[in-house]
């Protein structure tokens, strides 16, 4: 039997959640993995780099911030790997920056924006932009009962029926792993996840957002067709700049729609 204060605490949490859902959104955290993806949005929203970082001095993470319409926007890019100088892509950086950003910035909503591979068998083409319905991992294979479900780590994205109707975006499931290529085992797991798009960050962001009960949406633009006839790395690099521009337009539309609304109105 729950103690009275436990019951009260649960009720208070429920009321806080309902109240949060009905308050206008005032703070958005955008988590984005690559500089090429981030900079068009930095320019679009006229964000300024934070030179007195809210993050530990040892990490390469970069925060851009500013006000757009009635929204405080914080865009976090994990920066360049300190040893190799390449974008800090993947689930480890994504989960760390999401955790630290939630702690430091207390956002009302998280947007994980980025490029992704798409599957033509599921209706994806180069330049398509998807709003993700759910996220799962495809490379955490733990063939033990219940641990297998933990490995997949299925998380639902925030339901946004009004946003979908207004912007007419495509909808698909996202599968996340730490490799750009796709092994036969990964392919089987991605198929089991019923994924339309695959990336290297989304499910990690979803995991942390779920821990702290921060609503999260995922906007993914297709750079390469995974089940096509071109090498993934070649097609990804060839289309990155162009598709990043499509991502920029879609995220701008999303944020324009969010402005002045509460979570429940999305």
Automatic annotation (TrEMBL):
Domain Nucleoside phosphorylase: 28-255
A molecular function GO annotation: methylthioadenosine nucleosidase activity
Gene Ontology annotations of biological process type: L-methionine salvage from methylthioadenosine; nucleoside metabolic process
Cited SUPFAM superfamilies: Purine and uridine phosphorylases (SSF53167)
Short name of any one Pfam family annotated for the protein: PNP_UDP_1
Domain of life, per lineage: Eukaryota
Residue span of region Disordered: 1-20
Signal peptide: none
PANTHER family: 5'-METHYLTHIOADENOSINE NUCLEOSIDASE, 5'-METHYLTHIOADENOSINE/S-ADENOSYLHOMOCYSTEINE NUCLEOSIDASE 1
Protein's UniProt name: 5'-methylthioadenosine/S-adenosylhomocysteine nucleosidase 1
Species of provenance: Momordica charantia
Gene: LOC111008032
């Amino acid at each position: 039997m729950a103690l009275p204060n436990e019951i009260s605490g649960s009720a208070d949490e429920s009321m806080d959640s309902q109240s949060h859902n009905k308050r206008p959104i005032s703070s958005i955290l955008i988590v984005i993995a690559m500089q090429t993806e981030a900079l068009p949005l930095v320019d679009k929203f006229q964000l300024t780099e934070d030179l007195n970082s809210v993050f530990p001095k040892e990490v390469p993470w970069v925060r851009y911030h500013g006000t757009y319409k009635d929204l405080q926007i914080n865009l976090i890019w994990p920066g360049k790997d300190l040893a190799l100088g390449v974008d800090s892509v993947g689930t480890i950086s994504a989960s760390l920056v999401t955790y630290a950003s939630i702690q430091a910035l207390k956002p009302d909503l998280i947007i994980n924006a980025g490029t992704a591979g798409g599957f033509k068998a599921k209706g994806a083409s180069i330049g398509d932009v998807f709003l993700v319905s759910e996220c799962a991992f495809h490379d955490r294979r733990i063939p033990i009962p219940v641990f297998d479900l933990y490995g997949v780590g299925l998380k639902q994205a925030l339901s946004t029926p009004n946003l979908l109707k207004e912007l007419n975006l495509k909808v698909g499931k996202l599968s996340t792993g730490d490799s750009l290529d796709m092994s036969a085992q990964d392919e089987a797991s991605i198929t089991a996840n019923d994924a339309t798009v695959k990336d290297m960050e989304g499910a990690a962001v979803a995991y942390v957002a779920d821990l702290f009960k921060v609503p999260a949406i995922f906007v993914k633009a297709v750079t390469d067709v995974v089940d096509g006839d071109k090498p993934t790395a070649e097609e990804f690099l060839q289309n990155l700049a162009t598709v990043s521009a499509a991502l920029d337009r879609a995220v701008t539309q999303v944020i324009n729609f969010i402005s002045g609304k509460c979570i429940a109105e999305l």
